[in-house]
Amino acid sequence: MEIRAVRGMHDLYGEELALWQWTENELRKVLSSFGFKEIRTPVLEQLSVFKETVGDETDIVEKQMYTIEKESETLVLRPEGTSGFIRAVLEHQLHRLPGTQRYYYYQPMFRHERPQKGRLRQFFQVGAEIINDSSPEADAELIALLDAIYKHFQITEYKVCINSVGCKDCRPQYKEKLKDYFRPHLASLCELCQKRFERSPLRILDCKRESCKALAEKAPVITNSLCSVCQGHHSKVRSRLKDAKVDFIDDPSIVRGLDYYSRTAFEFTSVLLGAQSALGGGGRYDELSTRFGAEPLPAVGFGLGMERLVMVLQEMKKHTPPKETPFVFLAPLGVEAFNHLFSIGIELKRVGISNEMVYDAEKGLKALLKAANRVEAAYAIVLGDDELKSGQFLLKDMKAGTQESLKLSHIKEELLGRRQRAS
Ligand code: AMP
């Protein structure tokens, strides 16, 4: 039997992982300069956390969730971050803390989708959420943050599309208008959209099938049906984005896949990604908390796909994270030197000097220096019987090709000094 990773789930290692780690660090820098603090929630949540919030008829709840039955409980591997975040906020009363609060998470998500380029079954999302703030400025700040993230990585080929999906007061009327428009064309819609027609007609607007897309293009747009409060909010978000110098496009087809959004909805896409062009997206979801039986809680957030961000960075070939190589390679000649260098090696690691050694006392100098070159060590320490007798060691500068004889009792200080000068 061939043992493989689960389909649509990837191992990360080597250079690719180094790029991920560098990207993660950079992301944390941007998030922290925008004042966002990290929150971590469990991978498993109760089924109800998603069923009641994401929406019964969404693809996620209908067919994409990984569920686990255990001791009469149904648990779900989280398919998205916002529902679990709000569950945690309510559970720990974080919304009772005074003022606007900003949180971010960086976590794996699980969706049983058909895997393809940029679409996985386990993928990582960075999410940012602002709670306790119903102002359009909070929406604009969040969109500006996502924009700042891509700009930070010098990504230029992306589009920022924004829309408003109205609220519980104005959306029902728009839904009716939309149904009136689609009703005579029902037969031309794809099977899925025919199902969506009754209960989630807005979702027909973001169907990727050509026949549905052609019809959706001429459908009435929601921004013409907003109530005055939603209209005011939307126009303020737009003007704040202009103030913040974020270029955006009005796109009435942005309705987002999940049911819980109200007012602002947005998506960032890039042609560099191919068919799965969404880099990230989000929106306002003030009513989500009510599905947990709580009061409405002003909230706005986004989710950014890490695999897709890394794919764009790989495509650009601009960012090469520094290679991690050992500072020193230890080359003992003989058993006595081997014993000495083994303990010196551990001691050097303890004080932060990275080093490597081949655990084979039989190797000759030529093979050892070849290994030192292969791992790209800056220095090699050569210790043989003669050196041991005189209390010296040879320090070879691998790049310069020079070497000097130094006191064995000062080995730590010598290397610490050199490392300091090198950094
Ligand atoms: P969503 O929660 O569906 O709005 O997704 C937010 C972001 O996560 C998207 O814009 C993508 O960048 C990323 N994403 C969503 N689904 C997947 C997936 N199956 N595989 C990889 N990335 C994904």
The major beta sheet can be summarized as: 8 strands, mixed
Order of helices and strands: HEEHHEEHEEHEHHHHEEEEHEHEHEHEEH
Quickly count the helices.
Answer: 14
Structural class: alpha+beta
Q: Tell the overall outline.
A: elongated
Rg (CA only): 28 Å
Taking pLDDT < 50 over at least 5 consecutive residues as the criterion, the unreliable ranges are: none
Assembly type of the shown chains?
Answer: single chain
| Proportion of residues in helical segments | 25-40%
Sheet-strand content, in percent, reads 15-25%
For the biggest β-sheet, the strand order reads 1-5-6-11-10-9-7-8
Instruction: Give the terminus-to-terminus CA distance.
Output: 49 Å
Mean pLDDT across residues: 93
Give the tally of β-strands: 16
Bound molecules: adenosine monophosphate
What does this structure look like?
This protein has 423 residues and is an alpha+beta fold. The chain is built from 14 helices and 16 strands. It has an eight-stranded mixed beta sheet with strand order 1-5-6-11-10-9-7-8. A five-stranded mixed beta sheet has the order 13-12-14-15-16, sandwiched between helices. Strands 2-4-3 form a three-stranded antiparallel beta sheet. Strand 12, helix 11 (335-350) and strand 13 (355-357) form a beta-alpha-beta unit. Helix 1 runs antiparallel to helix 5 (136-152) and helix 5 packs parallel to helix 9 (228-243). The longest helix is centred in the first third of the chain and has 20 residues, at 14-33. The model has no long low-confidence stretch (mean pLDDT 93). Bound molecules: adenosine monophosphate. Adenosine monophosphate binds at residues 80, 111, 113, 118-120, 123, 125, 257, 278-281, 303, 305, 307-308.
